[in-house]
Every structure is written in structure tokens, then in C-alpha cells.
């Protein structure tokens, strides 16, 4: 542990741009959640929940911030739960873009979903790749 109390092997987040997050955040979120949940939730179901929460509350980040926390924990990325929620509440599109690109940078084809990615990678369970990290560009 560093003197800050954080493990030595935390990786930084990567940055990038994703038109989908801007034009249709429900699809971007659906794809992210399907990968983060390892296929137990479909892109369509998560996207529909995202739209429903957006229509009811006006703040879909209330739902999507939990997936950022799951993603961060799976890949041992820097940050914390409070920061995850703040990013989604104040800059939903930026947060979704960053998460989407993080998964792409780790070799996932976001357009084909979890199960097709597993098949594409010879049926092996996809372990987090920590050393690739989320580097700023």
C-alpha cells in the first residue's frame, strides 16, 4: 500500500471519444453493462432500464454509476464509489465514453456482446488485463 492507503497496482483510466454515448447513451450503457455483467444482463434490457430511469428521474447516472464501480473493481482502476457517482451525475456522456473505450482498449468488441466476445476468444473466460491500463492520450 502507498502512504495514501491505495494499492500499488491501480491503473489510470483511459480517455477517448464515443459518438454513441453522445447520440444514444442507452445503447452505449447497454453494451457496457452486458460486458460488465458478463452476459447475465442483455444490452437491450439494460438499455431499457436506463431509458426508464432517465424518463422517471431525469438522471440515468443514478443507475449507470453502479456499473462504473463494478468496472473499476473488475479492472482494479483508480477511483472510488463517490467519484463514480459524481462523474455519472455531472458528466454522464463523458463517463460512458470513458468506460466504453476502456473495454475496447482491453480487446473487447463492444458491438457483439459478452457471449460473442467469449467465443471469439476461444471460449476462455476474459480476465481483466491490468497492465494495459487506462492511459491518457
TrEMBL record:
InterPro entries: PLAC_motif_containing. The chain crosses the membrane at residues 12-30, 50-67. Keywords: Membrane, Transmembrane, Transmembrane helix. Pfam families: PLAC8 (PF04749). PANTHER family: DUF614 FAMILY PROTEIN-RELATED. This is Protein PLANT CADMIUM RESISTANCE 2-like.
Amino acid at each position: 500500500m502507498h502512504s495514501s492507503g491505495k494499492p500499488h497496482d491501480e491503473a489510470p483510466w483511459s480517455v477517448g471519444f464515443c459518438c454513441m454515448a453522445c447520440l444514444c447513451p442507452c445503447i452505449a450503457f447497454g453494451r457496457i453493462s452486458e460486458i460488465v455483467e458478463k452476459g447475465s444482463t442483455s444490452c437491450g434490457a439494460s438499455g431499457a432500464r436506463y431509458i426508464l430511469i432517465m424518463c422517471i428521474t431525469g438522471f440515468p447516472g443514478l443507475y449507470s454509476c453502479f456499473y462504473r464501480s463494478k468496472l473499476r473493481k473488475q479492472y482494479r482502476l483508480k477511483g472510488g464509489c463517490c467519484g463514480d457517482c459524481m462523474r455519472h451525475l455531472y458528466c454522464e456522456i463523458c463517463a460512458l465514453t470513458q468506460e466504453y473505450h476502456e473495454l475496447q482498449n482491453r480487446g473487447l468488441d463492444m458491438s457483439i456482446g459478452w457471449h460473442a466476445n467469449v467465443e471469439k476468444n476461444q471460449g476462455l473466460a476474459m480476465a481483466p488485463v491490468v497492465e494495459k491500463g487506462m492511459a491518457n492520450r
